[in-house]
Amino acid sequence: MKKFKLLLLALVFIVSLIVASSFGNFLPSSAVAQNADCQKHFVDGKAPVFTRPSLQQSTAGLCYDAFSVMHSGVSRTPLWSAERLTRESIAAAKQVHRKDAFHAEEALPAAMRAELYDYARSGYDRGHMTPAADMPSEEAQHQSFSLANIVPQDRENNQHLWSGIEGATRHLANQRGELFVMTGPLFEGEQVQRINGRVFVPTHVFKAIYDPVKKEGAAWLAANAAGDQYQVISLAELEKRAGINLFPAIPDSVKTHPSALPEPRLRRRGDSEK
User: Fold this and answer.
1) In sequence order, which residues have a C-beta less than 8 Å from that of residue 254 and are 6 or more positions away?
2) Average pLDDT, the chain
């Protein structure tokens, strides 16, 4: 009987990992919406697909009011964060006063998620993937401060170059009227640094955009380090490096030809907050 109970517990654990690795099965939480609500964040309602199977281990899809996340229980970070950015949502976001409210994601099992203490005295910023400044309501902004949407980010990078890239994305969306945006980390190399021995530190961060009217897209890619250097690369190159088909609804012919992206306006020390 004891052996039977142990076997049953093992089977339950395995099944729970399989369920957590599927984006279609959302974890129950007030912060997590249903699958149908989540489709609005993706081109033609099609969520990203892993092309590198190892990345799918212990993953969980989280859907919020204005963005969606694929969270990894291995890295304890998002692997991507998706949003549909519009001229109207940007105008609404400008009316929302920023209130920093970083918090652990209670929808995730404790063993899979980052905690606030992981970032304490780490030397890294808690870097948003989908930005708080994009959020069109107070509740959406609060959701963006979930650590499920956060990576350990170099402070200089986060506050200057990356802030400029976020601003350039909003500027482009305001011009075009609508963009689909995918943001996330890359973990490249044989060894990955961790903070508190638990949360993986990205080697790079990316922000990819797709214009559904002009049917064109490209991505900004920057090392997670101080400095002003970045690249504009094709969606195809980014997806190959990430091991994720970020835009499965977009033809390969579009992905292989990067569109022009605006140059980020770099924030410097002493610049006023947006």
Assistant:
1) 210, 215, 216, 217, 235
2) 88
Check if 128 is active-site: yes
Mean pLDDT (whole number) for 246-267: 95
Show the 3-state SS of the chain: CHHHHHHHHHHHHHHHHHHHCCCCCCCCCCCCCCHHHHHHHCHHHCCCEECCHHHHCCEEEEECCCCEEEEECCCCEEEEEEEEEEHHHHHHHCCCCCCCCCECCCCCCCCCCCCHHHHCCCCCEEEECCCHHHCCCHHHHHHHCEHHHEEEECHHHHHHHHHHHHHHHHHHHHHHCEEEEEEEEECCCCCCCEECCCEECCCEEEEEEEECCCCEEEEEEEECCCCCCCEEECHHHHHHHHCEECCCCCCHHHHCCCCCCCCCCCCCCCCCCC
pTM of this structure: 0.86
Evaluated on CA atoms 111, 112, 113, 119, the torsion sign reads positive
Indicate whether 234 pLDDT > 50.
yes
Closest CA to 202 of 63, 108, 72, 21: 72
Tokens at residue 147, please?
């650590």
**41, 71, 128, 160: which one is catalytic?**
128
